[in-house]
Amino acid sequence: MRVLFDAFPLLAPKSGVGYYTLNLLKAMSRDYPLDEHVYFYGRRFSKEILDNAPAFDAGLRKALKKCFPKPYRITQPIKEMFFRLGAGKQNADIYHELNYVPLPYNGPQIVTVFDMSLIRYPETHPKDRRAYFESYFKKRLANASHFITISDFSKKELTELYDVPPEKVTTIYLGGLEFTKENPNFTEKLPEKYFLYLGNLEPRKNIPMLLRAYAEAKAKEKDLPKLVLAGSPTWLSDEIFATIRDKGLGDSVIVKGYVPLPDLPHYYRNALAFLFPSKYEGFGLPVLEAMGEGTPVITSDSTSLPEVVGDAGLLLPCDEEPLWTKALLDVFQNDALREDLSKSAAERAKLFSWGQCAKETRAVYEKTLSLYF
Question: Which residue among 64, 298, 339, 373 is least packed, with the fewest CB closer than 10 Å?
Fold first, then answer.
């Protein structure tokens, strides 16, 4: 089978979509060596999986974002032009769009959809992203032969919001850090004990609520460990820093910025607990990654997160600050609770793998091709 992938998400600083793309492509390449894979990188086609963007691509992307208020209006037509010119020459059996919006393609195509937060929580996204989604996603829906979602929750959202037939959508769960090569020269200075949040610093992640709950716990327990916020301040993140300042948490909260992939295991493994109070998730990949390292998890009981965590973590309403305060204190003060949560998390994480994700994805290709021709 010859598969054409849109690997453009690998060219940006990677978060959820980028890590999904990287790990799925690696698993597909490893487990199906007789297949031929071609990757589209926005202006060229390649048979190589790129872990990082070439300097030219990274520099061009940064320059466009700096110079133009709505760069997608320039980049998307150019990207589609290159794809039109080259896609037909690849002789692919099937095309897999890994990030919502399929490019113009004559043939069977699979589209991965992660969540519908742009519809449910438009105020938590930049205007440019909303405009791009509104301009391209809906009008391209009919082109998709089949959809992949990363949770049953996201499948339900897609079918309800866009009237996509359920039989045209397959849920395929993600995997953890199995392809990650740890950094042997890790030298980051982290506290001996700390709570960890890891992910983009943006409104949907509900970090101001977490900070308020943490401040209350700190007032009740002076020895409470520090809170590490690891991730890029992406958009609308001013409230996070304002809350740190207003609650007097400057000495208790460490903002680390973007964490490279090889450093992730170190951050997860050494944390007292992983905190993820998100309001809305299509899957919640950092939660699974933390669980795979045996880190106790406290997360929201909403959207897709219960599918991932099961009964292996503490699930709390995302807006109940007193419950989050209590959970922080309980996990800090109760060694037996932390041990139980650690063991449960590690066992639960074994149910998810990129190999299984690749196997189920390829089965979707086969089924789609059998129906298409």
Answer: 373
Report the number of secondary-structure helices (H) and strands (E) in the chain: 14, 13
- DSSP H or E stretch at residue 225: none
Q: What does the alpha-carbon distance between residue 36 and residue 109 come to, in Å, rounded to a whole number?
A: 16
How far from 329 is each of 110, 247, 332, CA to CA, in Å? Answer: 46, 18, 5
Half-sphere exposure of 202 (CA within 13 A, CB side): 17
β-sheet with 146-149: strand ranges across? 45-46, 36-40, 2-6, 94-97, 109-113, 146-149, 169-171
Residue 7 burial (CB < 10 Å; 0-12/13-18/19+)? buried
pLDDT tens by residue, 214-270: 999 999 999 999 999 999 998 889 999 999 999 999 999 999 999 999 999 999 999
Nearest alpha-carbon partner for 266 in 338, 188, 194? 188
Taking the CB of residue 249, how many other CB atoms lie within 10 A of it?
18
pLDDT of residue 2: 98
Residue with tokens 């998890």: 297
List CB contacts of 330: < 8 A, sequence separation 6 or more: 337
Answer whether 147's CB lies under 8 Å from 170's CB.
yes
Sorted by sequence, the CB contacts under 8 Å of residue 317 that are 6+ apart come out as 300, 301, 302, 323
Closest CA to 124 of 200, 283, 236, 210: 236
pLDDT of 194: 98
Q: Residue 45 pairs with which residues in a beta bridge?
A: 40
Residue 62 has pLDDT above 90, yes or no: no
3-state secondary structure of 201: strand
| C-alpha distances out from residue 118 to 65, 114, 128, 133, Å | 20, 11, 11, 8
Strand partners, 273: 195
The pLDDT tens digits of the residues spanning 35-46 come to: 999 999 998 999
